Prior knowledge:
alpha/beta, globular
Amino acid sequence: MIVESIIITIYTIAILLIFMYALAQLNLLFNYLSSKKNVEDCDTFDLNNPNEVPFVTIQLPVYNEMYVMDRLLENIAKIDYPKDKLEIQVLDDSTDETVVSTKAQIDELKARGVNIHHITRDDRSGFKAGALKEGLKIAKGEFIAIFDADFLPKKNWLKRTIPYFKNEKIGVVQTRWGHLNRNYSLLTKIQAFALDAHFTLEQVGRNSKGHFINFNGTAGVWRKACIIDAGNWEGDTLTEDLDLSYRAQLKNWEFKYLEDVETPAELPVVISAARSQQFRWNKGGAENFRKMLWRVIKSDNISVKTKIHGLLHLLNSTMFLSIFTVAVLSIPMLYIKNEYAHLRMYFYFMSFFVISTIIFFVCYWFMYRQIYGSGFKKFFGYVGMFFTFFSIAMGFSLHNSIAVIEGHLGKRSEFVRTPKFNIKTLKDSWKGNKYLRKKLSANVIIEGLLMFYFAFGLYSAFVVGDQGGDFGLFPFHLMLCVGFGYVFFKSLSSKV
Length: 496
């Protein structure tokens, strides 16, 4: 019974962690809904008054962006803001032929009167954080707007964000990400679904109550003084944006989140690109939990509730490890349940995973309704999307759990940027992209084996016990089998 007791204990801890996270999401939903009733009234810069127009620097950190550089630079050059109060820095760490083509395009924009500078380095020390820090040394702007290579802000973007900095306590204004290619494939749809939840429910839910949020690495503006005061950019984690966000808020800087300002961007269209992005985000989240845990706990200028939300925020990625643990142990637990009759009441009591799923289902519906609208037809579409998302998210749980474990253990790794494709329509193809990794990860094989493992779980439902089977975990194992199957076969096909 020793092995069984260990399995039950680990399973229980993982289930309870997921349940705690679900309760936090429910609290964020209440915050989100209550925020809609608040009428915001705050002092803002009058940009029609030349004396109130601050100098802004736009930073574009790029690295080998053959497919999107032309689009990026042409779009940024159209930003509507007084020319004498705006400069653009292209922080180019590229190591391929795009250095030359980018310089040529920048020279052309300069000839058209655009105040734009091409800044290169001898090495990529600090990766993106290092490039941003290097550019900051010579930036003239009081405020620093940052855009990744695949983001396309609208012309009036600065005029909708900069005015809020009249409040001298505000260190960051962050906008909501949009998705240029949301409907390109099932993969882009589920990525959009997950990001929409973060950029509505989570960001608004936290920000509306003064809890910590994060600058999302792009599509936002920093007060330069805030960056310096918080200790500047640091490259010791893979999510330098989350790191600096927490250091700034621990020093009492306020963040302003604008849900109504959408900044369109491109989602990864091939699973290898999505995997590298997920790995970086999840490992970086764990690294920041390790880095910020005691700073948050020991801080005497934030409330207990903000500390709890902050720690759960930093533990976001660790939920994948809890989900993977519950998934793998669920089949042994199925057999334990039917082998030891006296434990059945425990299993009924431990139905937290079902409750957690219901909470997520309710929370994400409000997000979905905000973006797509309500009605029976929309709700029916939401049900299908939710369970598809849930299945594929669980299919990524091995990959993301490895990232989380590496982060918590302090294993360092290179910043691998997500390949961009310049894809918006179904007619566009990702094949032939020179930045895609050709090597197949060994983890893909394990994901294929896990697909068969959970297929065995489906079979087990019919044969366990002496009461004609046990189908309580059948839907869970079905989603896991489908999720790991999708990730496995999609990973194989992306190498063709």
